[in-house]
Amino acid sequence: MPVADTRSATLHDTAGRLQRGTAALARRLRATAPADGISPARLGILAGLRRSGGGMTASALAADLGIQPQSLTRLLADLEARRLIARRTDSTDRRRSLIALTPAGTALLTTELRRRRAALAATIAATFTPAEQKLLHQATLLLDRLAAALPRATDDDADEAAVE
C-alpha cells in the first residue's frame, strides 16, 4: 500500500475513532444526573444563554443549540416557571422578546457545571496515570483546534452523526 493510502486510511480510522469516542463521552456526560433534577436539555439552554452574554430570541437560541424553535417552547416555559430565565422586550425591536438567565439560573448552572467538572476530574485522576493525564490535556488542546476548524453543524450533519 502506498504511503499516501496508508496515511489516508489512518486519518479515516482516526476520524472514526474520534467520532465514536466523543459521542460516547458526550452521551455519558449528558446521562450524569444533575443534583437538583434539572434535565440535560434544560442545562443546555441555560448554557446557551450564558454563552450569548445577554438576551437571545427563542429562534436564535434554537439555532445556537441546533434544535427546532418549537422544541424549546415547553422547556422555556418550565425554566421561566422555575425563575431560572426571564423574558423581556427587546429595546431595539419592541415586537421581539429576549430570553436571559436570571441570577438563580446563573447560580444553578455554575454549581452544576462545577459539580460535573469535579466528577470528571476525579474520574480522570482515577483512570489515568500522570503521564496519560498530561497527554489527555494535550489532546484537549488539539480537540479545541479541531472544533474551531470545522464548519458549524447543520441539521443534516446531526442526522448523519446519529446514523453512524
Short overview:
By secondary structure, the chain is mainly α. Helix content is 71%, strand content 6%.
Architecture overview:
- By secondary structure, this protein is mainly alpha-helical.
- It has a domain of 73 residues: Winged helix-like DNA-binding domain superfamily/Winged helix DNA-binding domain (Arc Repressor Mutant, subunit A).
- 71% of the residues lie in helices and 6% in strands.
- It contains seven helices and two strands, in the order ααααββααα.
- The chain has a two-stranded antiparallel ribbon.
- It starts with a helix and ends with a helix.
- The C terminus is likely disordered.
- Pfam families: MarR_2.
- This is MarR family winged helix-turn-helix transcriptional regulator.
- It comes from Ferrovibrio xuzhouensis.
Q: Any descriptors?
A:
164 residues; mainly alpha; Arc Repressor Mutant, subunit A; two-stranded antiparallel ribbon; 7 helices; 2 strands; globular; WH_DNA-bd_sf; HTH_MarR-typ; WH-like_DNA-bd_sf
CA-based gyration radius: 19 Å
Quaternary status? single chain
Task: List segments where confidence is low: pLDDT < 50 over at least 5 consecutive residues.
Answer: 155-164
What CATH calls the topology of one domain is: Arc Repressor Mutant, subunit A
Shape: globular
Structural class: mainly alpha
- The total of beta strands comes to 2
Per-chain topology:
Layout: H1 3-31, H2 40-52, H3 58-65, H4 69-81, E1 85-89, E2 97-101, H5 103-127, H6 130-149, H7 155-163
Antiparallel strand pairs: 1-2
Domain HTH marR-type: 11-148
Pfam family, one: MarR_2
Organism: Ferrovibrio xuzhouensis
